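# nightly structure sweep
# worker-07 picked up a monomer target from the shared queue
# config: single-sequence mode, recycle default, output format = structure tokens
# input follows
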Amino acid sequence: MLYVFGFEKVCVVLGDLYFVDPDPLKGQEGAENGVRLELRVLERGELKESIYDSTPIAVEQPIWRADFLEAVDGKPFDRTHYHPVFTGWDPGDRVFDRALSADPLAWLGDRLSDLGGLLAEAGFPPEAAAPGDAAELRRTAPEIVDATRRVLERVRAGELGTSPDPDAPLEVDGQWQLVRSGWL
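# output follows
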């Protein structure tokens, strides 16, 4: 599932995620699932043939990411973290925040209410967003938080954020297999 909340120059995308990238040094043994949410650059393309055309829309470079992840067989939000900085399309290190783990959805609402702060933390200039984007994002934050909650509920119910091949072994010849399923 993929949600896109588009504004003038930025958007928020969120979707379910199933992920296996075992790294015992980071406490990532086994599968994790949940919701990935990103602030991204949004681009509106030119009409192709006439004024009646569908407008080309591109969800582009990531600016900031929050991962509301849990070990598939673990406790709620035991792997929840965020990535305040990207280098191109590659996220920086995971950042764990006690406030994020304690109340992830309230934390998200607070963060989405400060577009300027997110851009600054990510190293993007204020001009990466249009003048009205901050107010629109702040106004839409409760709807985005609610969509995140609903997708998380469906992940926990086993409807979303599942393995692309539930019968495939996660480990082959003593080696964990890398798996990723989801839009983001």
